[in-house]
Amino acid sequence: MYRVWVTGGAGFIGSHLVRLLVRERPEWPIHTLDALTYAGNLANLAEVWEAPNHHFHRVDVADLPAVEALWEAHPPSLIFHLAAESHVDRSILSPLDFFHTNVGGTVTLLELARQRWQGRQDVLFFQVSTDEVYGSLPEGGFFTEGSPYDPRSPYSASKAAADHFVRAYGHTYGLPFVISNCGNNYGPYQFPEKLIPLTIVHLIERRPIPVYGRGQNVRDWIHVEDHVRALLMIAEKGRRGHTYLVGARNPRTNLEVVSLLCQLYDELTGQQDSQRLITFVQDRPGHDLRYAIEPSPHLADIGWQPQVSFEEGLRRTLQWYLAHPEWWQSVRSGQYQTYYERWYGERLKQPPAS
Ligand code: NAD
Ligand code: TYD
Question: 41 and 146 share a domain?
Fold first, then answer.
């Protein structure tokens, strides 16, 4: 039995993990720690709010005294660390926020774990990371567990720094840890600033769908439920000190993803010609060309494989956003409107450089 902390549990992936844990491990106390930034939303936890084994704490993970007080009250034996600033475009506008949470927050938690877990082997620090730490692949390439780190955006640099700190604490202090590096997630409850939910809400609102450059960049997509099942299986059966590359062997160009969404949307709603909403805009600075994952062989050994096909996952995601307009309308606060105007205002007015 573990006493669990999920940091960032009110965000997209975190809330799916919390729901899974509350449902599948009812004997484990589950504590969600979340600062409730623009990306964190208590509505994401509505399903587990009344569950006797779930507890929510609003806290900034980089605030050492606050996290220490929580540790005194509810000492964990397993920390799933997901709290992060997670959007690459925002990291280009405001890198310091990414340094604060992704680096400072991780080191704060590691410091407490080092002091409080001294010599214990029945505990685990689980760093939930991204394939973006490996940088950009040439056409046809794949990341493997042994790929060198080569982060190129402020977001991926901050996640890479955090991963290095986790390994350094493992090496120097003997802290039991695992790290997972996953590809691009999609599914319900994803904040509508990332490619797939942004495309879906623009389809619903019949607004232009911004595609950077010519849409030829490749991302490796996985349904969020497949990802969080992998996290639980790795925590229970994975090798300590190991790195797990989590992917569903599903690399696609952005244009392919957006076109498929347009097609599925038209099938589901009877709308026609959604493809005409696709609008090529000025590229993201430093835009990584390709991410593609060769999943860790050990994942199959511990019994994990992806279960949701891309087309089925996208269809279900579209249906969820169509059925929950109140969710995505309410999370797009005033703060989001300011970000949207800063990032897309000029982009949508200017054609992309050829
Ligand atoms: P998200 O932006 O949806 O959620 C992040 C959560 O962290 C929010 O609830 C936010 O309120 C919280 N948070 C932010 N700063 C905090 C702070 N200082 N203290 C406490 N809480 C804070 O992100 P996500 O997409 O769910 O990603 C979760 C984790 O998974 C991140 O670590 C991310 O790097 C990693 N990851 C994401 C993807 C992806 O495709 N989304 C892929 C691989 C890895
Ligand atoms: P995103 O969802 O932001 O994830 P990440 O940058 O972490 O991979 O973007 C996925 C891909 O989609 C990426 O290549 C950038 C591209 N993209 C667009 O073309 N238009 C958009 O409006 C957004 C948000 C992303």
Answer: yes
The closest of 245, 249, 250, 221 to 128, measured between CA atoms, is 245
pLDDT at 353: 65
Alpha helices in 238-283 (DSSP H): 254-269
Mutate to test the pocket of ligand 2, among 158, 159, 186, 195 (most ligand atoms within 8 A of CB): 195
Residue type, 97: D
If asked whether residues 206 and 122 sit together in one domain, one would say: no
pLDDT at 336: 80
* The pLDDT of residue 242: 97
Q: Do 54 and 24 share a domain, yes or no?
A: yes
The letter for the amino acid at 39 is A
Kind of pairing between the strands at 218-223 and 251-253: antiparallel
Determine the atom of ligand 2 nearest the C-alpha atom of 213.
19
Q: For residue 235, give the H/E element and its range.
A: helix 224-237
**For 164, phi and psi rounded to 5 degrees?**
-60, -40
The answer on pLDDT for 146 being more than 80 is yes
pLDDT exceeds cutoff 80 at 350: no
* DSSP assignment string, 54-108: EEEEE--TT-HHHHHHHHHHS--SEEEE------HHHHHH-HHHHIIIIIIIHHH
Q: Scanning the structure block, which residue is given the tokens 């089925």? A: 312
pLDDT exceeds cutoff 60 at 218: yes
Q: How far is the CA of 93 from the centre of ligand 2 (A)?
A: 15
pLDDT at residue 337 in the model: 83
